[in-house]
């Protein structure tokens, strides 16, 4: 029974970390592309990959969070 509650807590924790990351990723990419358009290429080329990596990380955490919640619901 304790293992089942642990999966619920873990799933909620992953999804709560994912939510701000899903907003930060496009924000960093927007700032990066905006910097590239304003001839600040070094800053832009630094921010765009950071936004991309944050987005990939957020998608992975979201998948793990949903998986843990589904394991809790169906008691796998």
- How does the helix and strand content classify structurally? mainly alpha
Number of helices: 2
What's the story with the biggest beta sheet?
Answer: none
Distance between the termini: 12 Å
Record field, number of beta strands: 0
Give me the Rg, rounded: 17 Å
Contiguous low-pLDDT stretches (5 residues minimum) are none
Helix coverage percent = over 70%
The fraction of residues in strands falls at: under 5%
Q: How many distinct domains?
A: 1
Give the H and E element order.
HH
Q: What's the overall geometry?
A: rod-shaped
How confident overall, as mean pLDDT?
A: 92
Strand and helix map with partners:
Blueprint: H1 2-37, H2 41-74
Helix pairs in contact: 1-2
Question: Summarize this, please?
Answer:
This protein is mostly helical and 76 residues long.
